[in-house]
């Protein structure tokens, strides 16, 4: 009996080494027990907090506003060369109301139309810088909100090009800087040319050439003083006022405009 077996009974089984020592699956060697270190969470300062929904909408709204503001600033110089398309024309086209417009140069528009529209819509057109401040102050002081009476031809032009037709102080507030900018960039002649080519004279009917052909079956260059006055008289409400079939009230208003247009000389000398 050996020394290592003196304290073990003869009939006791030998200890099973495999039972107490895990073996490797490949070579029978004891397997190594690996410990997995816990992953520490990133520092709180490195985790960006979720932005509240109202802030996301505010940022989106600010970006849209910047685009709306930047678009006229970019397009106005381009429109020195390129015939513009107004928002009202686009809306009329996409809503299937039609869009009839034939662009004509200023020299292809009868002076009778230019004189009548100037004396009817903006008698100080050649004198102001885009906004008639005296007229604007007078009109805004009345009750009932902003009216068309305060709108100069530059203000109407930028409203037709870039804004919406409904009356509001917001729209009027946007018209003013845009009109000043347009009057600074364009000449008076170019302003009048653009205005007469984008003004609405009926459902889906835009520009003086399309109006002349539609109502009088002649080009804009051949319009008479009476026809020019009738077109000018229809501008405040072109959907309801028909220059080709004028009511008595429209004819009376056109006669007043025609008399004023006959004395338009010093009021249109900037064109």
**Shape designation:** elongated
CATH architecture of one domain: Orthogonal Bundle
Radius of gyration over C-alpha positions, nearest whole angstrom? 40 Å
CATH fold description of one domain: Penicillin binding protein transpeptidase fold
Percent in helix: 40-55%
The CATH H-level homologous superfamily of one domain: Biosynthetic peptidoglycan transglycosylase-like
* Low-confidence parts: 1-9, 16-26
Sheet with most strands: 2 strands, antiparallel
Question: Which structural class do the helices and strands define?
Answer: mainly alpha
Average pLDDT metric: 83
Strand order of the largest sheet: 1-2
What is the chains' assembly state? single chain
Description:
The chain is built from 11 helices and 2 strands; from the N terminus they run ααααααααββααα. A hairpin with a 2-residue loop joins strand 1 and strand 2. It has a domain at 83-267: Biosynthetic peptidoglycan transglycosylase-like (Penicillin binding protein transpeptidase fold), CATH 1.10.3810.10. It has a two-stranded antiparallel sheet. Helix 2 (53-78) runs parallel beside helix 7 (169-185), helix 4 (111-121) runs parallel beside helix 10 and helix 4 packs across helix 11. With 271 residues, it is an all-alpha fold.
């Amino acid at each position: 009996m050996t020394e290592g077996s003196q304290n073990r009974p003869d009939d006791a089984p030998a200890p099973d080494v495999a039972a107490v020592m895990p073996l490797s699956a490949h070579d029978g060697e004891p397997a190594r027990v690996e410990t997995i270190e816990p992953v520490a969470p990133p520092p709180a300062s490195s985790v960006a907090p979720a932005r509240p929904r109202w802030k996301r909408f505010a940022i989106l709204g600010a970006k849209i506003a910047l685009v709306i503001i930047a678009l006229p600033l970019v397009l106005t110089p381009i429109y020195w060369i390129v015939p513009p398309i107004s928002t009202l024309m686009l809306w009329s086209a996409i809503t299937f109301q039609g869009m009839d417009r034939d662009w004509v140069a200023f020299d292809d528009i009868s002076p009778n139309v230019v004189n009548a529209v100037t004396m009817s819509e903006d008698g100080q057109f050649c004198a102001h810088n885009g906004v008639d401040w005296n007229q604007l102050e007078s009109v805004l002081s009345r009750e009932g909100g902003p009216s068309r009476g305060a709108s100069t031809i530059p203000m109407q032009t930028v409203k037709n090009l870039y804004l919406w037709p409904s009356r509001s102080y917001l729209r009027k507030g946007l018209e003013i800087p845009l009109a000043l900018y347009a009057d600074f960039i364009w000449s008076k002649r170019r302003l009048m040319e653009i205005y007469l080519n984008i003004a609405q004279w009926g459902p889906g009917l835009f520009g003086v050439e399309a109006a002349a052909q539609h109502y009088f079956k002649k080009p804009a260059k051949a319009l008479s003083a009476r026809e020019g006055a009738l077109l000018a008289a229809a501008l405040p409400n072109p959907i309801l006022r028909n220059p080709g079939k004028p009511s008595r009230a429209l004819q009376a208003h056109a006669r007043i405009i025609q008399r004023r247009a006959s004395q338009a000389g010093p009021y249109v000398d900037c064109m």
